[in-house]
Specification:
amino-acid racemase activity; single chain; Hydantoin racemase; EC 5.1.99.-; isomerase; 258 residues; Asp/Glu/hydantoin_racemase
Length: 258
């Protein structure tokens, strides 16, 4: 089985992300079962403010859609989005037939199987606000307990690969709030944060379990590929109605996308 793991950052292009990329490549292939190959990819263009301003989604997320189409053409069995903003989440299921897993969507649904409630472990208010909207879109509000974010910069997040205390110490304030509110599980609200915690096998914060969304995404698509092989696939109705291939090709040609 071949899995395309798609980061929302410019992995392979911007050397600032090198440690993140290497951590993902090593860790995800350890998580995958024997016979599964996980290839990690980034996007060509990345803005550090794409989690703050919605207009940037139009420029950023199109790259992920194009990569999903490329992954299917190149024979990948599944496509994982490793960004907890779940960029282009619905569009991906319109344009490819292979199983798709979104980091936050997968993590939150799994949290509902493993815990009576969950909260988000987010590193900034703009990102947290966007993700609370996703909680509502996915219909999980009744299981969600809102807590504040902790504030660290993207550079500090990247520094966590060398010293996780840079991240974990500020995050403890969220854990204290979560304990007071009765939170039973955290969902990691950032792919980079998730990779830092995965590298150091950090599975809890202040006594509250923290789900490893990247590992969950790999195991989820492995299962979805298995299910597809026995005839169990996703619905092609409603928001998941696929775009006919001829229309997809003509639209891509219209907008100059190869």
């Amino acid at each position: 089985m071949k899995i395309w793991y798609q980061s929302g950052a410019s992995l392979g292009i911007d050397p600032a992300w090198d440690e993140y990329e290497q951590t993902l490549k090593t860790y995800l292939n350890q998580v995958a079962r024997p016979g599964t190959q996980v290839d990690v990819h980034g996007v060509e263009l990345f803005s550090h403010s794409d989690d703050k301003y919605r207009f940037e989604e139009f420029f950023h997320d199109g790259q992920i859609v194009q990569n999903a189409i490329r992954a299917e053409r190149e024979g990948y069995d599944a496509f994982c989005v490793g960004c907890a903003r779940d960029p282009a989440g619905i569009s991906l299921r319109e344009v490819v037939d292979i199983p798709v897993s979104n980091l936050l969507e997968t993590s939150m649904h799994m949290a509902c199987l493993l815990s009576p409630n969950f909260s988000l472990l987010a590193h900034g208010q703009p990102l947290l606000r966007r993700q609370i909207e996703l909680v509502k879109r996915y219909g999980l509000s009744e299981r969600f307990i809102e807590c504040n974010s902790f504030e660290v910069t993207l550079d500090e997040l990247q520094g966590g690969f060398s010293d996780p205390k840079v991240i974990m110490d500020p995050a403890m304030g969220v854990a204290e709030e979560a304990k007071r509110k009765g939170v039973c599980m955290f969902v990691n609200a950032c792919g980079c944060l998730n990779a830092v915690m995965g590298k150091y096998c950090l599975r809890e914060l202040g006594g509250i379990p923290v789900l490893d969304g990247a590992a969950l995404s790999i195991k989820m698509v492995e299962m979805l590929v298995d299910l597809k092989a026995i005839g169990v696939g996703r619905s092609k109705l409603g928001a998941f109605t696929p775009v006919p291939k001829d229309i997809l090709a003509s639209v891509m040609k219209l907008y100059g996308v190869v």
